[in-house]
Specification:
Elements lengths: L1 E3 L5 H18 L13 H8 L6 E5 L5 E12 L8 E11 L8 H15 L4 E4 L6 H9 L14
Parallel strand pairs: 4-5
Antiparallel strand pairs: 1-2, 2-3, 3-4
């Protein structure tokens, strides 16, 4: 079952955030520190109260949180260059490494997609780090296409 995250989910979500960071650390140790999380428990509690930053969790029949999706809703209106659009940005999707391949990520993504439609979003966007081939393949299977490419030059 996918639902909005609650305060009682913080410990489980923190464990998933650790897994996300470790994937990023393996791909880009020059940018990501190992064995840490993007947010503290307090920061996560604060985000749960932000209507424009919904967090969804996948909870199994035993009440275990097996995955999460951090989202951010933004809207451009009256911009001189950009069309008036509402976008849902997926900041992070994570499935517990023990449950990958069990459609948890698919269920989370489809729930987020339906949520974005229900609030009138034009599109869903996200970023994938180069080298995270499993994530890239997953998002392609979900029907996502490349919107733009970020590039860098190390100095």
């Amino acid at each position: 079952m996918v639902r909005k995250a609650e305060l009682r989910d913080i410990k489980a979500v923190m464990q998933l955030l650790l897994q996300v960071n470790n994937v990023h650390n393996q791909i880009r140790p020059d940018l990501f520190r190992g064995n840490t999380t993007k947010y503290t428990e307090q920061q996560l509690a604060d985000i749960l109260n932000e209507p424009s930053s919904p967090i969804f969790v996948y909870e199994d029949a035993d009440g275990r949180v097996l995955g999460h999706a951090f989202c951010q809703v933004s809207q451009f209106s009256g911009h001189h260059l950009l069309q008036d659009v509402k976008t849902l940005y997926i900041d992070d999707i994570c499935v517990d490494e023990k449950f990958r391949g069990h459609h948890v990520g698919q269920d989370l993504y489809l729930y987020v997609r339906d949520y974005a439609r229900s609030i009138g979003c034009y599109n869903i966007t996200l970023n994938v780090w180069e080298g995270n081939d499993a994530a890239l393949a997953f998002y392609r299977r979900m029907g996502m296409k490349v919107q733009k490419t970020g590039m860098e030059s190390l100095l």
